[in-house]
From TrEMBL:
It is found in: Membrane. InterPro entries: Cyt_P450_sf. This is Uncharacterized protein. Residues 1-25 form the signal peptide. Its cofactor is heme. The keyword Translocase does not apply. GO terms for biological process: sterol metabolic process. It comes from Camellia sinensis var. sinensis (China tea). Keywords: Heme, Iron, Membrane, Metal-binding, Monooxygenase, Oxidoreductase, Signal.
Length: 161
């Protein structure tokens, strides 16, 4: 008899703790992370190789009926923001609610100094970027851009109305 009462009390307390404790689940957007480790990277890369990366995005937008969804790309859990309101939220709250970061795969290739802030890195990038758009640099790119454009027109526009 005593054993039944004590088991009942223990069971009742466990049930109350489970159902009445505040939920610790994260408030995440809809979506799936795909396979362990690789996530949805293969599907994303397949769409990129076909020249239609937007297909990956539009499929998820229609599946989850949301312009914000979660996925896993390049070994990292990722949240994708689509549309003007999402971008406005993203850029209005940089370093407040959100913090920019690079995936570990990119950090391995281009290590950033832990002593510099994201603002300092942005200033450094702004100083480096104009070098790529100088007339001398653009002259080197013209031949490559012309070849790529001709290949694109030959493959995708030839004899098509």
């Amino acid at each position: 008899m005593e054993l039944c009462i004590s088991l009942s009390l223990v069971s009742l307390s466990i049930i109350l703790i489970v159902f009445l404790s505040p939920s610790k689940a994260k408030n995440l957007p809809p979506g799936k992370t795909g396979w362990p480790v690789i996530g949805e990277s293969i599907e994303y890369l397949a769409a990129r190789w076909k020249g239609q990366p937007e297909k990956f995005i539009f499929e998820r937008i229609s599946n989850y009926t949301s312009y914000i969804f979660k996925t896993k790309l390049m070994l990292q859990p990722t949240v994708v923001f689509c549309g003007a309101p999402a971008h406005k939220f993203l850029f209005a709250n940089e370093n407040k609610l959100l913090q920019s970061w690079w995936p570990s795969s990119v950090d391995n290739i281009f290590p950033s100094s832990s002593q510099t802030s994201s603002k300092e890195e942005a200033i450094k990038m702004r100083k480096m970027l104009p070098n790529f758009f100088k007339p001398e640099a653009l002259q080197r790119y013209i031949g490559i851009m012309d070849t790529i454009a001709q290949q694109h027109f030959a493959a995708d526009w030839e004899n098509k109305v």
